[in-house]
Amino acid sequence: MTSPHSDTPAWLFSFVDLAFLILLAMTQVGSLDSEKGLDLGELVLPRVGEQAPAEALAVGGDATQVRVYPPGDAQPVFELVTAGEPSPRIGRDELRDRLARLRAASPERPALAPHADSRSEDLLAAVALVEDAWPSERRALVERIGAKP
Questions:
Q1: Averaged pLDDT, 42-58
Q2: How far apart are CA 31 and CA 49, in angstroms?
């Protein structure tokens, strides 16, 4: 079995290519020792306080957080916490409006603080709303390609 373009067998190129890809994959995984190894697929998120009302933030005086709570207590899942202000829970549309007002007043992007039991759907909605209000120069790794005419 030879390649039509050279005297090199096609299987040799395929084997070298596969070996190189396996080498790349294994170097990205890290150590296989469970004590030193990485927990792949794990995302550690900060916890939101146990109390429903937000405590005053100890960091900077103007620090702002978008908190995401788990559903089920008949309250909206989002909360926009600014130091020194009371913060009731709000819905998605109200969060969008408040983030737009906050963006007009301050260039500081709020931090996301999801509860450990919050839904991924709500966290991703909060990320999208913050990204809409504070667009960045980052690009998507995968872009949708439209249907060819």
A1: 54
A2: 35
CA–CA separation, 69 vs 80, rounded Å?
11
Residue type (1 letter), 80: L
Q: Contact 112/130 with Cβ under 8 angstroms?
A: yes
36 domain-assigned: no
Across 81-110, average pLDDT:
87
- pLDDT higher at 138 or 40: 138
DSSP state of 61: T
**Domain ranges, residue 83:** 64-133
Q: Which helix (H) or strand (E) holds 18?
A: helix 10-29
One-letter amino acid for residue 130 of the chain: V
Quick one: tokens of 79? Answer: 């909360």
SS (H, E, C) 92-103: HHHHHHHHHHHH
In a domain, 87, yes or no: yes
Higher pLDDT, 149 or 108: 108
Total count of domains within the chain: 1
CA distance 136 to 142: 17
